[in-house]
Design goal:
Largest sheet: 2 strands, antiparallel
Order of helices and strands: HHHEEH
Number of strands: 2
Number of helices: 4
Distance between the termini: 49 Å
Structural class: mainly alpha
Radius of gyration: 14 Å
Oligomer: single chain
Shape: globular
Strand content: 5-15%
Helix content: 40-55%
């Protein structure tokens, strides 16, 4: 029942994040078949050292579309980078390429 579902959600935060992003992409941008698996998301975060692709901070990451969905970017793992909540909110729908290293801050952090 609800308790078991709640436990699963707590034990699988990466899968839940992928499920929610997939649902958002389908709902808001009418992207048929848009899907990123929890496994892909975990592997991508690992590739980035579990750090933000923009500022290099480690911690809770959100999925950021490099080319925003609102600008026609695809909802595919190749267009996703891990971003801290702060960078993701500040980036918004701007097109800013990730730096892929922790030694450089994004322009808005200056």
């Amino acid at each position: 029942g609800k308790l078991m579902a709640s436990d699963w959600i707590k034990r699988n935060p990466d899968k839940m994040q992928a499920i929610n992003q997939n649902r958002r992409a389908r709902r808001e941008f009418l992207i048929a078949g848009a899907k990123i698996s929890g496994k892909e998301w975990v592997e991508l975060k690992y590739k980035y050292g579990n750090s933000c692709a923009y500022c290099g901070v480690a911690g809770k990451m959100t999925m950021d579309h490099v080319i925003p969905l609102s600008k026609g970017g695809p909802h595919r793992i190749s267009n996703i980078v891990p971003a801290c909540i702060s960078c993701n909110v500040k980036k918004g729908t701007k097109l800013i390429l990730p730096v892929m290293r922790a030694t450089r801050s994004p322009e808005w952090a200056s």
